[in-house]
Amino acid sequence: SSLSSTYGYGNSLYGGYRSGYGTGYGGLGGGYGLEGDGSDFLNRAEDNSRAAFQAIESIVQAFGSVTMMLESTFHAVHSSFRAVLGVAENFNRLRDHFSAILSTFSLIRALRYIYNKLLVLLRIRRNNLDEQAWNQAENLGETLGKPSQNDGPISWPLGLFAVVAIGGPWLIWKIIKGLESSNGKSRKSWATGQTDHLIARAEHDFKSENQREISFRRGDTLRIAPKDRQPRIKGWLLATLDGENIGIVPYNYVKILGLRKG
């Protein structure tokens, strides 16, 4: 009986183990079922939102393509502009070189004239310069009177090409320089009183600490730039004292008197 009870105890123990294992598997099975439901929900949500995200991605890519196109266009225009300026600068250098060459020829001609004069003064050569001048003038007249063999339909296209190649970049360069100078004058016209500006009186002495600032004394009259010319610096105004030196002054050191028409 003790053995049977022992075995029975063992059976019940084994049975307890079996029941425990069964419960554990059941619990694990229930856990697997919940995880499967969550995965299905995530898959369905991802499938439903995939089209919307693809549309958003297409829109972003379209904007990126437009931005790249505009950037490429800007770089192309900027490169062309710099190329035109480079051509104009090279033609200016070429003109300077031609001027130097012509001045060299003039110097050589002057030296030859002095050399011939010295030979005449030293009685090494006869004074026949007048006769040589008449001969040169006669030869030049005969040369100009003869029709040139090169005159033909090819001469004027070459001349037109030379005018366009040299005059075009030079004209563009002059226009750009003119625009820059006119913009600079219009920006500083308020300082000379030609356009509208404000009048202010200095209430305190001020000593400039850098090149951007201007110094003044109490009682000085300053011209203040209009609102659209003012820098975006809090507490500072763009002004001038003599119409030439332009700089910033502290706002609390001056008193605005009114608007002055240009």
Automatic annotation (TrEMBL):
Keyword Membrane tagged: yes
Could you tell me the keywords of this UniProt record?
Membrane, Peroxisome, Protein transport, SH3 domain, Translocation, Transmembrane, Transmembrane helix, Transport
Q: Which family does it belong to?
A: Belongs to the peroxin-13 family.
Quote the CDD domains the UniProt record gives.
Answer: SH3_PEX13_eumet (cd11864)
Query: Which Pfam families does this one have?
Result: Peroxin-13_N (PF04088), SH3_9 (PF14604)
Tell me a GO cellular component: peroxisomal importomer complex
Keyword hit for Flavoprotein = no
The entry's protein name is Peroxisomal membrane protein PEX13
Subcellular localization = Peroxisome membrane
UniProt-listed InterPro entries: Peroxin-13_N, Pex13, SH3-like_dom_sf, SH3_domain
Concerning SMART domains, the annotation shows: SH3
Superkingdom: Eukaryota
Q: Which PANTHER family match?
A: PEROXISOMAL MEMBRANE PROTEIN PEX13 (PTHR19332)
Q: Which stretches make up the SH3 domain?
A: 195-259
Q: Which GO terms describe its biological process?
A: protein import into peroxisome matrix, docking
Membrane-spanning parts: none
